[in-house]
Give the backbone structure.
Amino acid sequence: MPEDQVRVLKTRAAQAGKSLQAYMQELITRETTKPTMAEMAARLEREASAQYITDDVLAAIDEGRGGR
């Protein structure tokens, strides 16, 4: 890793009151828990193409109305 980038990371870690290792772990955790645009697009595609059976939808509506 280029030394100038390491210096920036060390400075940011110090400003956040963290060790470089803790700061990097936080960055990695944040990056790996956030879905990429491709992952989000694939998820939306899966959800948009879900098949619903009319009887299931009508049953869910009836069930919801029964709670009133």
